[in-house]
Amino acid sequence: MKRNLLLTLLMAFVLVIASACGGADDGASDDAEVADDGKDYVLQAGHSLPNDHPYQIALEQMAKNIDERTDGRVTIEIFPNSEIGAEKELTEGMTLGTVDLVVSSTAPVTNFIPELAVLDLPFLFKDRDAAVEILEGDIGQGMLDKMEDHGIVGLSWAENGYRHVTNSKHPIEKPEDLAGLKIRTQENPIHISAFEELGAQPTPMAWDEALTGLQQGVVDAQENPIIVADQFSLHEANQDYMSLTGHVYSVAVFMMSKQTYDELPKELADIVVEEGEAIGSVQRDLIVEMEAESLEKVKENGIEVIEDIDVAPFQEVVKPVYDEFQDEYGYEEVLNEILEAQ
Length: 342
Ligand code: PAF
Prior knowledge:
The protein is an alpha/beta fold. It is about 45% helix and about 20% strand. It contains 15 helices and nine strands. Pantoate (PAF) binds near residues 87 and 228. Pantoate (PAF) binds near residues 49, 186, 228 and 250.
């Protein structure tokens, strides 16, 4: 009895101490809090786009804010242009703890976080405003929270603009114009299936391989937002036509490895998370600002832009994809919520 009483008292003491040490809610779970060791930290951040793209500009801003707020104790080294891996590899790197921070389109992230799959369904969002409202609301927050189950802390939603088809063969105005076209897609089963429905021949590959594929004529076409066509000079990669199909609103996401989060002293980890949470909307505004200018540059560079496209026939053809992946990704409920919200 005496021994039991002692044990109970000991356990109660431990519980009181543990709860007194608990910190504020910061969006990531606090299961392994690291005491501050006074050390400095260098974190590696990767993405696939060039130095003048909003992914980079936003990461630089985030790095500056973190440097200032931590008195130089946390330095973020940024690697653009897939220098430390393309988007799929970067995401995997975060789950393994070999990459600390990433901003990536959601399509390849889905390979590790199936809960995001719904975001890559074609023609999902009515328009950009509806997409932002949904992502910034409970639905989007629920998805960011889910990422932690897969070893990644979801920080904030970003974007790259609407995806459009470019190709080397002819103007695309209706689904039939895609017949037999060899098109590079992202490494995402939903994208692949949508282009199969449209009669094209999709080849999934990472973006750093896609450019060579286009230059060498291994593929005739690709699909990406306007800013990508501009910043990667796709007119020099045989892309003579761009059709503004807007088939996917390219959601992107700022992320941090959970392993990195757990290894940082809590005070520093919280600052990184807070700055990561704030940077998404800054990045999105930059895309909106830069997109119109990119469209002009694409035209000046000689790409014929087909702007006035009736998307209804494209929507009709890709419809079966919604049902096709429902079981695999289990997105029925969240899909209905997204559709009802707009
Ligand atoms: O097509 C892709 O892989 C992506 O859209 C890109 C260009 C890497 C930007 O996120």
